[in-house]
Design a protein that fits this description.
- This protein is of the alpha+beta class.
- It has one domain.
- The chain has five helices and eight strands.
- A six-stranded mixed sheet has the order 3-4-2-1-6-7, with helices on both faces. Strands 5-8 form a two-stranded antiparallel ribbon.
- A hairpin with a 2-residue loop joins strand 1 and strand 2.
- It is elongated.
């Protein structure tokens, strides 16, 4: 879904609003959520810190979310017990409902169109070409560094009412402390840090 969103944002902003217009924010989003699989390396991450990329183009809103496994399920070791595997699968289900985690004004009329969530591991990137489909939780069986990755497509009836985003995410996942947000719209790009003690992102109108 987000073939080039990371690089688009990096070229558009350095923790501030870009001075001029950027390319249409959804121009780099592919038609299917799985299309970018394997193109992003699993990078070192800070526990407690997730990232949320948002692109808004007209009534369409796309988001890409990454969070360390420790933030979401409390561990990043190989999941072998039934309890750990159940925790991973439950987290994937919760992360599949982004509007419960990143709440938008009711007046904006935003609703989820598509969602894809997976648990990424170091092994997924080391030998991705050798994999076939298997259970999400099994992907963590031989890894020591894991990250949850979600990609979402939404539509909003009144995008002009999308002036803020609340983060119930912090209530759902107690280990999460901060989300680094990068926002791309038709007029520019900006970056923000949303913290547990101030869980609201003001994005203007």
């Amino acid at each position: 879904m987000f073939l080039e969103l990371d690089s688009l944002i990096e070229s558009s902003t350095q923790y501030g609003t870009s001075p001029g217009p950027v390319l249409p924010p959804l121009a780099f989003i592919a038609a299917t959520p799985a299309s970018a699989q394997g193109t992003r390396q699993l990078e070192a991450h800070d526990h407690g810190v997730g990232t949320l990329n948002i692109a808004i183009d007209g009534s369409t809103l796309a988001m890409e979310f990454h969070a360390p496994g420790a933030d979401i399920v409390g561990f990043e070791y190989a999941a072998t017990s039934e309890a750990d595997i159940a925790a991973i699968n439950a987290a994937i289900e919760v992360l599949g409902t982004p509007l419960d985690l990143f709440a938008m004004p009711e007046a904006a009329g935003c609703r989820l169109i598509d969602a894809a969530v997976e648990l990424e591991t170091e092994d997924d990137h080391d030998d991705h070409d050798d994999h076939d489909d298997h259970d999400h939780a099994d992907e963590a069986s031989n890894a020591s560094h894991t990250e949850f990755h979600g990609e979402y497509m939404l539509t909003c009836d009144m995008p002009s009412a999308l002036t803020q985003i609340m983060f119930p995410y912090f209530d759902v996942f107690p280990n999460a402390q901060e989300v680094e947000v990068q926002l791309v719209t038709e007029t520019g790009a900006a970056a923000f840090e949303v913290e547990r003690d101030a869980p609201t992102l003001e994005i203007g109108s």
